[in-house]
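FAQ

Q: What does a record look like?
A: Structure on top, sequence underneath. For example:
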């Protein structure tokens, strides 16, 4: 079941998300596994979590960081999701390498990088057939993609692999991404969606007719987990339903 929470703006959305993160980590007795979202929206949330306002409220040594997707670039490349998290979270909190499992995106062959990451996940999650993240953070593209699951891309149909290389036509390049089976196996999935440019896609994803090839984010439906959409007013601009509704 999806819940929707509308915040005035990204600042308010991030504070709501940060408080949720604190609560989720506290709720889990052992290690806490989170797959981070990439792109630009989560940057401010990561910095907020690392700020004096929140950093001491989280037992960071128990938190293990993964990535929902990655670009096929080295870890110090400006486009790297790992670099964005490193600069806005890991370095500020002095998170060590043993708490970070990044895609080996510098590997020349994307399929090899995906296979390595898939094995790393299986090792970490003691070979569970399908790792169950405590939390998956996701963004939404203006085209309705999430992670690197882009419209009409092959990975949308992946029903068994955990991590794949996904050729994305509009970039004429591969991306690396977790697949829907593992995303939908998570205990908690939280979308962070901010900005008027996302309003059209958000309306289609939340209220439009089922069209998952065109709007892949429609396929995020945790099988046995919580789904929460954290959106701000500008992103909510085209939705017709009331705010803070609990959708189906
Ligand atoms: C990525 C992300 C991607 C992102 C959306 C939204 O690697 O870019 O994983 O799915 O969440 O494209 O991106 P923005 O937050 O930059 O709008």
């Amino acid at each position: 079941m999806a819940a929707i929470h509308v915040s005035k703006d990204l600042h308010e959305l991030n504070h709501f998300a940060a408080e949720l993160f604190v609560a989720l980590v506290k709720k889990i007795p052992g290690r806490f596994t989170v797959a981070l979202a990439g792109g630009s929206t989560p940057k401010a949330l990561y910095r907020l979590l690392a700020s004096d306002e929140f950093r001491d409220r989280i037992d960071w040594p128990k938190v293990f960081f993964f990535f929902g997707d990655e670009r096929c670039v080295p870890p110090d490349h400006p486009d790297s999701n790992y670099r964005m998290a490193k600069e806005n979270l890991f370095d500020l909190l002095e998170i060590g390498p043993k708490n970070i499992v990044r895609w080996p995106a510098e590997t020349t062959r994307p399929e090899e990088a995906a296979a390595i990451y898939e094995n790393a996940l299986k090792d970490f999650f003691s070979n569970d057939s399908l790792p169950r993240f405590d939390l998956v953070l996701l963004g939404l593209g203006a085209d309705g993609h999430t992670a690197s699951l882009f419209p009409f891309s092959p990975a949308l149909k992946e029903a068994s692999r955990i991590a794949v290389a996904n050729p994305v036509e509009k970039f004429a390049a591969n991306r690396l991404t977790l697949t829907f089976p593992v995303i939908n196996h998570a205990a908690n999935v939280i979308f962070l969606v901010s900005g008027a440019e996302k309003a059209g896609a958000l309306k289609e994803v939340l209220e439009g007719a089922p069209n998952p090839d065109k709007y892949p984010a429609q396929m995020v439906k945790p099988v046995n987990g919580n789904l929460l959409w954290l959106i701000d007013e500008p992103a909510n601009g085209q939705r017709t339903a009331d705010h803070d509704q609990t959708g189906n």
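Q: Is there anything notable about this one?
A: Residues 37-41, 68-69, 81, 139-141, 145-148 surround 6-phosphogluconic acid (CB under 6 Å).
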